[in-house]
Structure formats: C-alpha cells, structure tokens
Amino acid sequence: MRAPVFALVLTLAATPVVAETIAPNEARNHVGQNVTVEGAVSGVHHAASGSVTFIDMGGSYPNNTFTSIILKDDANKFPDVDTLNGKTIDVTGPIRLYQGRPEIILNDPAQLKAK
Asked: What is the pTM of this model?
C-alpha cells in the first residue's frame, strides 16, 4: 500500500513592476536597470542604411544625453515615430551603453508613450 502524496501549491499573483521615471541626463546612472526616461524629443533620424531609427533626447546628436533605438525589424511597429520631434515622451526599458552612450532599444510599442 502506497502512502498518500500531498502537494502544496502556491500561486503568486503577478505584481506589475513600475519603472522609476528619470530625466534623459540621469540615464547614465541607471545602466542595467529597467526605467522610464521622460523628456522632450530633440530629433528623430534614420540611418542612411535604413537599419536603425534614432530618437534623441537631451540635445541633438552628437551632444544628446540619451537615445532610443528602433531596429529595422521593429520599425513597422512605430509608424508615427517621425511625428515625435519636439514632443515629450516616455520610453521604458533596460538602459544599456553603446559606445559609452546610454540608450534603450525599443521593440514593443508599449515601451513608447507620447504625452
């Protein structure tokens, strides 16, 4: 005769994580963290190759303090990106450094909110 087996199952409700909101000039201090960067768009431009779209904040390239990147494969998810120039936006995601400059790669429209 086998002994009965009892199992205890815990179900945890997912709690949404709210990202800290920072200014573009603070991004360098949050590398590796998931944050929301809020600021005015200084410029939107596309690489000549068409492979990348850049959304600059905190000044114009090369003097900007932060950039959001949209890669070619995700560009169709952001059809209105060219209308963002001068608008205040929130971009959310993990901050990484590329050539020493802070950026967030955008691959989901939920990461970008125009105000």
From this structure: 0.84
